[in-house]
Amino acid sequence: MTAPTAQQQPDFPVIGIVGVGLIGGSIALAIRQRGAGQHVIGIGRSAERLAEACRRGVIDEGETDLAAAARRCDLLIFCTPVDRIVAGVREAARACGKPTVITDAGSTKGAICRELATGLPDAVTFVGSHPLAGSEQSGFEHASAGLFDKRVCVVTPTLNTPATAVTRVAKFWNELGATVLEMSPEAHDRALAETSHLPHLVAAALAATLLPANRELAATGFRDTTRIASGDADLWTAIFLGNRDPVLASLARFEGEIAAFRQALQQNDAAGLKKLLETAKISRDAIGTA
Amino acid sequence: MTAPTAQQQPDFPVIGIVGVGLIGGSIALAIRQRGAGQHVIGIGRSAERLAEACRRGVIDEGETDLAAAARRCDLLIFCTPVDRIVAGVREAARACGKPTVITDAGSTKGAICRELATGLPDAVTFVGSHPLAGSEQSGFEHASAGLFDKRVCVVTPTLNTPATAVTRVAKFWNELGATVLEMSPEAHDRALAETSHLPHLVAAALAATLLPANRELAATGFRDTTRIASGDADLWTAIFLGNRDPVLASLARFEGEIAAFRQALQQNDAAGLKKLLETAKISRDAIGTA
Hints:
2 copies of one chain form a homodimer. By secondary structure, chain A is α/β, with parallel strands linked by helices. Chain A folds into 2 domains: 14-183, Rossmann fold (3-Layer(aba) Sandwich), CATH 3.40.50.720; 188-286, 6-phosphogluconate dehydrogenase C-terminal like domain (6-phosphogluconate dehydrogenase C-terminal fold, Orthogonal Bundle), CATH 1.10.3660.10. Chain A has helices at 22-34, 47-55, 66-70, 85-95, 110-116, 163-175, 185-209, 220-226, 233-242, 244-266, 270-286, and strands at residues 14-18, 39-43, 61-63, 75-78, 100-104, 124-126, 128-131, 152-156, 179-182. The first copy, chain A, has a 6-stranded parallel β-sheet with strand order 3-2-1-4-5-6, with helices on both faces. In chain A, strands 7-8-9 form a 3-stranded mixed β-sheet, with helices on one face. In chain A, helix 5 (110-116) packs antiparallel against helix 7 and helix 7 crosses helix 10 (244-266). Chain A is elongated, with a radius of gyration of 21 Å. The first copy, chain A, starts with 13 loop residues before the first strand and ends with a helix. At the A-B interface, helix 7, helix 8, helix 9, helix 10 and helix 11 of A face helix 7, helix 8, helix 9, helix 10 and helix 11 of B.
């Protein structure tokens, strides 16, 4: 363990990161760079990968035994695929030996927060988080200490989550550079279905539409529009199934927009097409370029 | 007119750019930077804008009278919206006083090349072009001499286009840094419907689906996927209508992909979803990140 500095003690001195990939690795790097913790334990299944993450200075220590690590942590952050978070949190919570806050970085929140609202030991509090940052790349080799800087992190308490724990988790994300928005898990899932999950589905469908013979004619427009379709298929299968109904609802609205474009085009309706494109441009321009 | 240099005389000494916006301005800058012409005349409707383009060093001279400019040019490049190219070329061709090659930078080629395959004076040859470069921005203020560097430019001769003119136009685009692909106008339109026009339509539909309340939750994935939806609505209305049937055909295939995703999600079919995402990832990974 690194020696405590003369500066103010961080709120969570020992932090465990479960799943040291692009997100987990970036959280670890940001904690170390910004002094948001004193000691970062990376927890994963491959001792070899954890040793490499140590060697690169991403984490202070690697541990393959979740329970052994959990016992020593003040804060645990689950950065595993969304379909493995609930079981992982329950396993860790059973081992915790002191008051511990557990959060996550999962892209869906409803099911996870609902399941973890009950059944945890008294000393353990779970608060759902979702930092809106990432990449189509994976692995701590692509991690970056600045990944959360000026990005939004959504924190999703339920009615039973103690306010102190919510504040502490929000403060932690602030220390990593993020702006925190507090929302219910359900509101988060409805919004993210539209802003993240639907775009992923659409980008994938568009990439799949491209015939191999036309690849050399795909320029920057196509590349940008489909970039996220390079994301990991397993991760995204779990996200879609974990947020199925809101994604289907957003998809239905998107299919309605597509049908309006198709109809205007079929009818050679220049005024109608222009109106649809203008509405889209207003919406897109409103979110800026950053 | 600038004095001829001691170097080899360019193939087209005097070049007219009709429509000095992002594309026309970038062509002008590239010509001047690479010595692909000796004198660049910018042709447009606003004397004020042309004067500003001169002041910024984008063009050598501005001219609002298309016929007057055409008379002096060895090469004319139409960078106007696609629905104004045919009439502009006919007007310019009537004025040409010496052997002149005319090309364009339009995003659709079938209708334009079909209409211009006949009825031009003997001294004038039209060869369709489409440099696959651009931006959602507009105006010569955003022009760049390097816009065509290492990009593809499609040149679309018809059966009647003289081979010499095709070679000269191809060589011109090479001088601007582009790799030239020769295709029939119809093959171009089918391919670009898929790689450019469909992505624009999809990005616009996705941007239109975003509810204003969710804008602050739109992160990099959403931004990238919808970036091109900020393009000019008039320009794109003309492109869609100018390539209607191929766009509708690509759209039908895209809607089939979307339906497959919807069905897999409705049926909670994890294996099916994963397979769809993997196919999309393979397609996207194959076109790279450049």
